Amino acid sequence: MSYKEKKVITIGVVSELTGLSERQIRYYEERKLIFPERTKGGTRKYSFTDVERLVDISNKMEDGMQTFEIRKMEQKQLRQTELREKMLRGQLNAAFNIRK
Questions:
Q1: Measured between alpha carbons, how far is 9 from 25 in angstroms, rounded to an integer?
Q2: Which ranges of the chain does DSSP label H, i.e. alpha helix?
Q3: Which residues cross the membrane (predicted)?
Q4: 47 and 80 fall within a common domain
């Protein structure tokens, strides 16, 4: 796991880094756009990747997008990525005559 993926940053620090209020960050979590981990005590922990994602979400919201549009767009991108990976695995399996 990359250091960018480790969930170690508290919501207060994320707020300072992104310029978003803690309330906005929690709202994006409620809308299923961001997925922090929780400590045993319930504290949210974010990664640097999450911070980048929050900035991207904020920019899209400023451009007039709605949260459901952002989620829908990201789901589409994920499906496309998964399809590309599946096709690539198929091509590699065919090229090297790998059978499952």
A1: 13
A2: 11-18, 22-30, 48-62, 67-95
A3: none
A4: no
Mapping DSSP to helix (H, G, I), strand (E, B) and coil, where does residue 75 land? helix
Look at residues 74, 79, 10, 80 and name the one whose alpha carbon lies nearest to residue 42: 10
Assign residue 79 a region (left: φ > 0; alpha: ψ between -120 and 50; beta: otherwise): alpha
What are the pLDDT digits (tens) for 34-79? Answer: 999 999 999 999 999 999 999 999 999 999 999 999 999 999 999 9
Whether residues 12 and 47 fall in one domain: yes
CB neighbourhood size of 55 (10 A): 14
Angstrom distances, CA of residue 70 to CA of 67, 76, 87: 5, 10, 26
- pTM comes to 0.78
Instruction: Judge if 1 and 17 occupy the same domain.
Output: yes
